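Running log. JK asked me to keep both predictions on one page so they can be read side by side. First protein, sequence followed by its tokens:
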Amino acid sequence: MEQTVVLIKPDGVKRGLIGEIIHRFERMGLKVVAMKMVQPDENLLLKHYKSDDPATLKRWGEKTLKTYTQYGKDAKKDLGTDDPMELGKMVNKWLFDYVTSGPVVAMLLEGKHAVENVVTIAGPTMPVNAPAGTIRGDFSTDSAAYANDEKRGVMNLVHISASVEEANFEKTLWFTPQEIHDYKRLEELL
């Protein structure tokens, strides 16, 4: 069975969506094998987002420039720079400010094709592109364009592991082996 990490971010917690989000995953047949509420610190987020890696920062900056181009805006005029590295550092700060603005519910889910199923249920990273029926599509309309204008992270309710490799890495960051439980759901016993 695959395992994957889901983080309900501060906007999901503050909006009272914890139960709804968990319900959607459990209804699909995914099993919660670890869960806790935490206040993430900068050290944990540096490891999680790999934002001490120059390539990551540059990629975030390039995505920001692409968003600005897409909406006919001028990053240099609005943000004071069009250097991808500098923009990546800004995005990193906004992201950290957002994810540390309140508690996060960290979960480890287990099931057949857990990673792929969680990606489908959550919807695309940008809520504005998420279809109805997904978590992001049903509960958020945010976008990078608005977030950049307001100099903040995109409020997209959840973080999900995008691959099995990412899930295995993130599992070790967020959970100790003692926090992960092995049990059978009722349908597994039948």
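And the second, directly underneath as requested:
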Amino acid sequence: MITIYRDPVVTLIGRPQYVEPAHLPVQWHEEGTDGEKLAEFAGRLCYMSQNNPANRSTAEYLGNILRQGHGSVFEHAVYVVLIEGVSRSLTHELVRHRAGFGYSQLSQRYVDESTAAFVMPPAIQGDEALEAAWSEQVASAQASYVAAVERLMERYAWVEDRVHRRKMAREAARSVLPNGTETKIVVSGNVRAWRTMLELRLGEGAEREIRRLAVRVLETLRGEAPRFFADFELYQAEDGERAGRVVYHKV
């Protein structure tokens, strides 16, 4: 039996902490999250408007930032998520988003993939014949990996350090594993970077697996700091998947 993921899993594991300077207090008119307060404070500092002369709430203030496109203040708020149940094919695309992001991904050189999980592409899901054929193929690949590791461990028996020997075997054997092998990755990104990634990957032209991930990320981040992502809209696309659009582009 092999473990098969059909949808990505996104878990928030890090958020900003706002510590207000005692000598520059803001006259808040609404309780916001730490990340939202951090961005608002940074914006108000530019004009020394901590006394909030327009009596704006945090939602109103950040909404105005979105309309004006002054997204630089969003770069101060960084959120970190753990992403699981995605393919290595997906992460090859994800890590192309460089500015404002940090990544730490599971290493196939060190981790034993003999019990690896796999990610079934959305296009295959729901077709019994396709699912059966795909499952057979990934099970065969996993069996080939296990056999290769065992044979390579024998071949490298002369290497005294067993940890190094395992690494040498696994780094060669992983070549038989498909792009659909499940991986885990920690991603940190500031809000401006997250918004850009989401705008691109929520679109109907995005690959379906990464679009599913973008939907989960948006739901997670909007649940944590809704005012940063209030202008995103999710809808049902013609291909049966959810997609998204944004009002304020590349803030």
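Observation for JK regarding the second prediction: The mean pLDDT is 95.
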